[in-house]
């Protein structure tokens, strides 16, 4: 099989299915939703033609589908006590990969080619490196055209072409872009630990590049989440193995972060050092991103208090939050129609306590499985994402939904467990 030309290999169903999934993983970091959807449709058609009844039966009985697809099904059921069915349908369309993605990944598990997990990780890392380099190249072109490293706004501010939104705008929101980079960092770190010689040097160089890219994207929660997971991992491993020198890693990470922040530009310092003022005026106009979130969360809790168990219903959740903004006098929230910027609160607004429970079950299920099989790189990705959900409603956009519904199910079904996966 290895000696056959690629055109011949593509005639085989297992190769086609594998290539489609690898293409999905490669394109996810680029953020092109239409490409995701097109690949999903092709994979679905291919699966309908070439999968057997037992493949579908196994998929529908899989705990993976019950965990991920169940989260989506709860949203579908929750639609029926909402008034705005059109808005609810739009939200369900965005969330459809939770069901479709996890179903297709699990149903095709018998078709994946040899060593597919490693190939899948490489595809995702390569895609992340590709979009990172592309973003830097495009920012360089814009800087050359402008004759400056900075874009001057109408209010006189100078925004670097190489940081935050200017760096990521062609591909995706910087918070999601930074999440893709964070995943690639965990996977690349695993590769560097497992490799030797020149390969290790190559992986470490790649790791350094990804870390710099994360800093440039200025995703504060992403950076804090990365450091929190690395720090917790070092503490856990240090005590478990009685290698107490490892406990210095969290301290070194903290020192490194302080050095980066203090040596950066004034705009970068302002971005990273924003702190919430708990005495802010919710009816005023003076906000930073931290106090914006405090205002959003205060109003979100108002909605949750009135709709604790089953939520407002998918479709009415947005308007309910905007009405709460109006009642509190949060004019900026009403004007810009902000969402809650916290996935846990966002889920509770729409689906209540039972929605939050379904979200927790989904995260905990994968966490237990990856811990049980000793896949600490992917477990790190999951914990990293769980932190990021605290300040971003990430499952309200296709970027993170596709990432979750493809990446984690695939990493689980292609793992070689040291313990039985249930």
Could you please describe the fold and organization of this structure?
Helix 2 packs antiparallel against helix 3, helix 2 packs parallel to helix 8 (116-146) and helix 10 packs parallel to helix 12 (220-241). This protein has helices at 6-9, 13-27, 33-50, 53-61, 63-78, 85-95, 97-107, 116-146, 164-168, 174-194, 197-217, 220-241, 248-263, 266-272, 289-306, 317-328, 331-336, 343-372, 376-388, 398-413, and strands spanning 150-152, 158-160. The chain has a two-stranded antiparallel sheet with strand order 1-2. The chain starts with 5 loop residues before the first helix and ends in a 9-residue tail after the last helix. It is mostly helical. Residues 418-422 have low confidence and may be disordered.
Which characteristics define this entry?
422 residues; mainly alpha; two-stranded antiparallel ribbon; 20 helices; 72% helix; 1% strand; disordered C terminus
């Amino acid at each position: 099989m290895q000696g056959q030309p690629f055109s011949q290999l593509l005639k085989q169903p297992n190769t086609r299915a594998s290539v489609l999934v690898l293409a999905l993983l490669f394109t996810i970091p680029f953020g092109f939703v239409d490409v995701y959807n097109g690949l999903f449709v092709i994979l679905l058609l291919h699966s309908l033609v070439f999968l057997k009844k037992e493949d579908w039966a196994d998929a529908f009985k899989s705990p993976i589908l019950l965990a991920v697809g169940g989260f989506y099904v709860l949203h579908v059921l929750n639609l029926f006590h909402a008034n705005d069915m059109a808005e609810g349908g739009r939200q369900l369309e965005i969330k459809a990969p939770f069901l479709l993605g996890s179903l297709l990944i699990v149903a095709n598990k018998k078709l994946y080619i040899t060593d597919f997990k490693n190939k899948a990780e490489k595809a995702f890392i390569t895609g992340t490196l590709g979009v990172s380099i592309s973003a830097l190249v495009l920012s360089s072109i814009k800087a050359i055209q402008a004759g400056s490293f900075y874009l001057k706004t109408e209010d006189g501010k100078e925004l670097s072409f190489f940081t935050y939104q200017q760096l990521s705008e062609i591909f995706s929101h910087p918070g999601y872009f930074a999440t893709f980079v964070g995943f690639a960092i965990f996977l690349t770190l695993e590769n560097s630990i497992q490799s030797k010689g020149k390969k290790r040097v190559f992986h470490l160089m790649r790791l350094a590049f990804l870390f710099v890219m994360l800093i440039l994207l200025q995703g504060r929660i992403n950076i804090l989440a990365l450091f929190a997971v690395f720090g917790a991992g070092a503490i856990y491993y240090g005590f478990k193995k009685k290698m107490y020198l490892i406990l210095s890693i969290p301290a070194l990470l903290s020192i490194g972060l302080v050095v980066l922040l203090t040596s950066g530009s004034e705009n970068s310092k302002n971005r990273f050092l924003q702190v919430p003022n708990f005495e802010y005026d919710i009816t005023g106009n003076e906000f930073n991103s931290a106090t914006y979130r405090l205002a959003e969360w205060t109003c979100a809790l108002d909605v949750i208090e009135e709709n604790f168990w089953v939520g407002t219903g998918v479709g009415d959740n947005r308007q309910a939050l905007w009405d709460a903004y109006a009642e509190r006098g949060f004019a900026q929230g009403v004007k810009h129609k902000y969402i809650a910027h916290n996935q846990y609160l966002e889920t509770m607004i729409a689906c209540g306590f039972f929605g939050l429970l379904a979200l927790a079950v989904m995260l905990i299920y994968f966490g237990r499985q990856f811990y049980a099989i000793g896949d600490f790189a992917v477990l790190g990705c999951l914990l990293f994402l769980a932190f990021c959900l605290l300040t971003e409603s990430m499952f309200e956009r296709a970027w993170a939904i596709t990432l979750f519904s493809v990446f984690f199910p695939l990493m689980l079904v292609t793992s070689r467990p040291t313990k039985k996966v249930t």
